[in-house]
């Protein structure tokens, strides 16, 4: 195949691949990015407690604070009416706002308790485990009601 043909096909493929993505500046793109950060941060915390990653007190505390900060962010990116795009959110998010917001506050409270507990050193992983579990449970409760799998 000629070099120009290969380059043309490559450019066409790259252009088509770029068309299918979510606009990172849209409400959907912003909340997806925050939820991904929350997931990675939560996985790091859980990994330290479950022995997949070595427990590092400083990193654990930093991640707990980061998770608490992130837990307050995605809700502002849920507009009053359902937005366009490939969202995993069920229509119930917009139809049952009071319940959705209630679960958001529960998550914020759980991550706040976890972050506050990391201020007292040394950290005891056994004491942190139920707090991480509470935050994970708060995420799961919202997913069960409002996320389409």
TrEMBL record:
Pfam families: Cytochrom_C_2. This is Cytochrome C. Binds 1 heme group per subunit. InterPro entries: Cyt_c/b562, Cyt_c_II, Cyt_c_prime. It comes from the Bacteria. The keyword Transport applies. GO terms for cellular component: periplasmic space. Heme c binds at residues 139, 142-143. Residues 1-17 form the signal peptide. GO terms for molecular function: electron transfer activity; heme binding; iron ion binding. GO terms for biological process: electron transport chain. Keywords: Electron transport, Heme, Iron, Metal-binding, Signal, Transport. PROSITE patterns: CYTCII (PS51009), PROKAR_LIPOPROTEIN (PS51257).
């Amino acid at each position: 195949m000629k070099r120009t043909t290969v380059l043309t096909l490559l450019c066409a493929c790259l252009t088509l691949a770029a068309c299918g993505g979510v606009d990172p500046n849209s409400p959907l793109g912003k909340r997806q990015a925050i939820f991904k950060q929350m997931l990675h941060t939560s996985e790091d915390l859980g990994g330290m407690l479950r022995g997949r990653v070595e427990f590092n007190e400083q990193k654990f505390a930093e991640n707990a604070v980061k998770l608490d900060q992130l837990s307050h962010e995605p809700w502002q990116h849920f507009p009053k009416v359902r937005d366009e795009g490939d969202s995993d959110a069920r229509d119930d998010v917009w139809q049952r706002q009071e319940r959705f917001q209630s679960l958001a506050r529960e998550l914020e409270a759980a991550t706040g308790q976890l972050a506050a507990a990391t201020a007292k050193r040394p950290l005891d992983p056994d004491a942190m485990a139920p707090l991480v579990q509470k935050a994970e449970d708060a995420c799961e409760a919202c997913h069960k009601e409002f996320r389409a799998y």
